[in-house]
Amino acid sequence: MTVPEQVTTPDQVADAGLEEPWRRLSIRMLAVHPVMELLRAIPFILIALVVGSRSTPGGGGLWGLVAVGITIVIGLLRWATTAYRVTPTQVQVRRGLLGKSVLTVPRDRVRTVDLTSHFMHRLLGLTRVAVGTGQTDRRQDSGLVLDGMAAAEGAHLREELLRRSVVAAAPSAQAPRETVVAALDPAWIRYGPFTLSGLVTIGVVAAFGWRIINETHINPDQITVVHNAAGQLQRVPLATAVAEVLVVGLIIVALFSTVGYVLAYWNFKLTRTAHGTLHISRGLITTRSTTIEERRLRGVEYSEPLLLRAVGAARAVAITTGLRVGRGAERGGTVLLPPAPAVHVRRVAADVLGDAVPISVPLARHPRAALRRRFTRALFGWLVLSGLALGLFWPLGHPLWTAYVALGLLPLFLLLAVDRYRSLGHAIVDGRVIFRQGSLVRRRYMIDGTGVVGWTMHQSFFQRRAGVLTLTATTAAGRQGYQLLDVTPATAVAIADEVQPGLLTPFLTAARS
Amino acid sequence: MTEALLRPPTLLVSRRAIFYWTIRALPVWVVLCGVQVMWLLGNDPSYRTARVAVLSATVALAAIHLIVMPQWRYRVHRWESTPEAVYAQSGWFTIERRIAPVSRIQTVDSHIGPFERLFRLANVTVTTASAAGPVRIHGLDRNTARTLVDDLIRTTQATPGDAT
């Protein structure tokens, strides 16, 4: 068994006889960390100033400030104790004041390099480098991250880490040729409102506001705007009030979502470099630049959230090792194309995959049992919601709207069930697995069969009775496992057998039909 | 295309695993019943009948679970290992079959927990580069587990590459 990544003691490293000097992070990082900590602590400071001595018997504000002081000191220590170096075969990061540790990653394990610069970073010309290896995925800690490197040095490090294959193959001195695969068209911003990404922001803002109100004991009714709005809502009939709140809510969500779209995807550009990497850069204030080694790209996920689907848009996400979908700092690093017209997204997906068939091939339908199961599940969900609505019927004094809500939801749930069934599909093209599922977010996974490292067949009690199962192709890339809902056991075997011929053969029997 | 189906793996786990699963499921039920008994013995007299009914139902469920689940599991939990693949089946109410090609195996671990120690059992976890699909075989006899680990380590060393 090879151990691809390990923590060694400094002594062992010295024994290896590596001559490369250790490099420090930029000294300017000292300005970033304390300021970031201060920004994060603003709520505490505000509370401490506003509330002062009159509330908080425990002196919570004061303790908050002490905590800020400690974090600043920690930031200083982090700079003093962090160093890195790149040897011909390894990348090493040295950390720790008391217990020193050296994280060593073989260079051929490097899959992706991700450069993120927040606002403060950009002011000071700094960046944060995250190196993705297949292995760090399963770790709880952040792996190989260097926060506070000079921007130019970060870009240099990226070149250094991902270039080796080319240096070995063609040591020509000419600058790498880049071809632009896709770039943001400002017209796409019109899809911003349909992403609903603003909901998250609003949630955060609301939580923040709520905390301030709680901590400062301000009565929201004393704020004029709130007071007037509440008064107006109480005067008009209930239906009007509900409509007003909905409309205002929708406008706010649309606005936040659009702003979020612009902040995240401004200057978006997807390029392919001559040395086999895909390069994605984007961002208005916080810039993000991700480099993916194309050899490690295992596929593309083409996803259509319901609202985007309704307006003919979609987005694409890379499935690659080293970038796990939706995890901490790596979140969003895999975006291949932000919400854009579906035609465009399909073209980019085909370009990245190097094959237009996977995105356009018609998919095989799933058995009727899958449709029945979608209906039972939808009806079960509807029953639960209706039960809740009717549970309010007596306590609230027999309002009819509970019944209307229960009845009105039924067709929606049935439509959802039908759409969920219609989304289900699978195909195999040139050893590439194509799975599709989902209605609220319909996703089409196109995964390279060579990246599949195992199969899981999951069958619940009810699935056994219906004669179907859930097939999962496990992979080291992206979501780690890609599911195909409700296929017959024979289909599941056929898919696995076609992707990895011979793997299942010793475990097969003839069908009992 | 001829239709083929996956058969269950051939090897059963150790019979002692039945007791292991029973013992492992016991604490939750003991706590659930214990809390209810304490509540019943308290001097609050309201809803006494209802409480007794709920307690009896809990005891009945516990009995059924503790008797049926381990037997059922014993019939489901199976495994098989060839030079090319590891294949395991687990679960009871829901059944899961996992297959990993030996060429994709990254680590082979054997672990013995406190309850497993009690019944001289061991489990074997085979991980691939994916965080989603470790193949776990529970309730193996210790010697069987050791042989399996040795075999897997020998065969995986012969095949390089893990598709990351």
Give your account of this protein's structure.
- The complex is a heterodimer of chains A (513) and B (164).
- Chain A is an alpha+beta fold and 513 residues long.
- Chain A has 16 helices and 22 strands.
- Among the domains of chain A are: 128 residues, no CATH class; 77 residues, no CATH class; 55 residues, no CATH class; 90 residues, PH-domain like (Roll).
- In chain A, helix 2 packs antiparallel against helix 4, helix 3 packs antiparallel against helix 4 and helix 7 crosses helix 9.
- Chain B is α+β, with helices and mostly antiparallel strands and 164 residues long.
- In chain B, strand 3 and strand 4 form a beta hairpin.
- In chain B, helix 1 packs antiparallel against helix 2.
- Chains A and B meet through strand 19, helix 15, strand 20, helix 16 and strand 22 of A and strand 1, strand 5, strand 6 and helix 4 of B.
- Strand 22 of chain A pairs antiparallel with strand 1 of chain B, so a sheet runs across the interface.
Which descriptors apply to this entry?
heterodimer, A: 513 residues, alpha+beta, 7-stranded antiparallel sheet, 6-stranded antiparallel sheet, 27% strand, globular, B: 164 residues, 4-stranded antiparallel sheet, 3-stranded antiparallel sheet, 4 helices, elongated
Which helices and strands occur, and which strands form pairs?
The complex is a heterodimer of chains A (513) and B (164).
Chain A (H helix, E strand, L loop, with lengths): L5 E3 L1 H6 L7 E2 L4 H12 L1 H10 L8 H22 L1 E4 L3 E6 L5 E6 L3 E8 L1 H5 L2 E8 L10 E7 H19 L8 E6 L14 H19 L7 H12 L2 H28 L3 E5 L3 E6 L4 E7 L3 E9 H5 L2 E8 L14 E7 H12 L3 H4 L7 H24 L9 H23 L1 E5 L2 E6 L3 E8 L3 E8 L1 H6 L2 E7 L5 E7 L1 H11 L8 E3 L3
Antiparallel strand pairs in A: 1-5, 2-3, 3-4, 4-5, 6-7, 6-12, 7-8, 9-10, 10-11, 11-12, 13-14, 13-18, 14-15, 16-17, 17-18, 19-20, 20-21
Chain B lengths: L3 E3 L4 E2 L3 H26 L6 H29 L1 E4 L3 E7 L3 E7 L3 E7 L2 H5 L2 E8 L6 E7 H17 L6
Antiparallel strand pairs in B: 2-3, 3-4, 4-5, 6-7, 7-8
